[in-house]
Amino acid sequence: MASPSLNLVPFVSVEHMMDLVLEIGIDQFLVELAGTIEDDFRRWEDFDKTARVASHSTEGVIELMPTSDGRLYAFKYVNGHPKNTRTGKQTVTAFGVLADVETGYPLLLSEMTILTALRTAATSAVAARHLARPDARTMALIGNGAQSEFQARAFHALLGIDRLRLYDIDAAATKRCMTNLEGLGLDIQACATAEEAVEGADIITTATADKQCATILSDNMVGPGVHINAVGGDCPGKTELHRDILLRSDIFVEYPPQTRIEGEIQQLDDDHPVTELWRVIMDQTPGRSSDSQITLFDSVGFATEDFSALRYVREKLLGTRHFIELDLLADPDEPRDLYGMLLRRQAKLKPSQPA
């Protein structure tokens, strides 16, 4: 997919991304993306790692998420503004860049609003494959917003989850989720309360959007053997689980320095023991050790997952038309003559046009 000119950078628009996902198939895309994410977790030590750079306001947060494996560099711009839904806007929007470390030249510019939803769901399913009971088939999905269908599809495709119990404070959101998931062979039940939703669930996914500390799950709602996939707590001052649940659980995280600031474990002491997910994937440390164990994936999203998503998309673009080329870089024939490039452009303008 190399551009004929160095100034041209492939750009994947929202429409391109949707067409690429649908051409591959949503489930197949999630399965393959999960494989790429897991592959990159297996080479965790190759990556530069830093907690995301966040700019917080009373309205939300804007973040940059960078990482590099020494050959490729990636970053994502992403926001989180829960109040946006009141004016018909997305809570989360994002775009990302993949670049060549050797030259610094961008290799790909892509929308990542849809791609982030896919990679978040794929990462959740990767974690659950290592942490949930192998016989898990029922998932409670609390918070039926923009992430919910992606989570359901990922857990269905990668873990064989076939029963969903849905709850949201907005009944219309639950109805939309049920409608969107029709025809997939899932047994879906709309529940009147969160307590009803978690009854009999093997996996509990929480994915709410309010920018505050909340108690979506109380301690009495979580029984032995459950795997909790906590997605919604992803910034300082925003959590979903009662602290007592954390104290009863074995907690698994992506990158502790970031999760201790943003995740559920911001409620705990800084030295509370947690296990890094990559160590479980690499068989360096146990994940689930018994059927009665409560496991918690404190998911906040980490830059390596976005790196994996961009890397995967770039590979899948080969031989397709699901991108355009942007004249993004000033790349004169003589690299030192950037000013001359401007003069040559001036010479092409009509005499009546001001320089």
Automatic annotation (TrEMBL):
Q: Where are the transmembrane segments?
A: none
The lineage's top-level taxon is: Bacteria
Q: Which Pfam families match?
A: OCD_Mu_crystall
- Cited InterPro entries: NAD(P)-bd_dom_sf (IPR036291), ODC_Mu_crystall (IPR003462), ODC_N (IPR023401)
The UniProt record lists the EC number as 4.3.1.12
Question: Which keywords appear in this protein's UniProt record, sorted alphabetically?
Answer: Lyase, NAD
Q: So what family is this one in?
A: Belongs to the ornithine cyclodeaminase/mu-crystallin family.
What SUPFAM superfamilies would the database entry show?
NAD(P)-binding Rossmann-fold domains (SSF51735)
Q: Does the keyword tRNA processing apply?
A: no
Q: What is this protein called?
A: Ornithine cyclodeaminase
Instruction: Please name the top-level EC class of this enzyme.
Output: lyase
The UniProt GO MF terms for this protein read:
ornithine cyclodeaminase activity
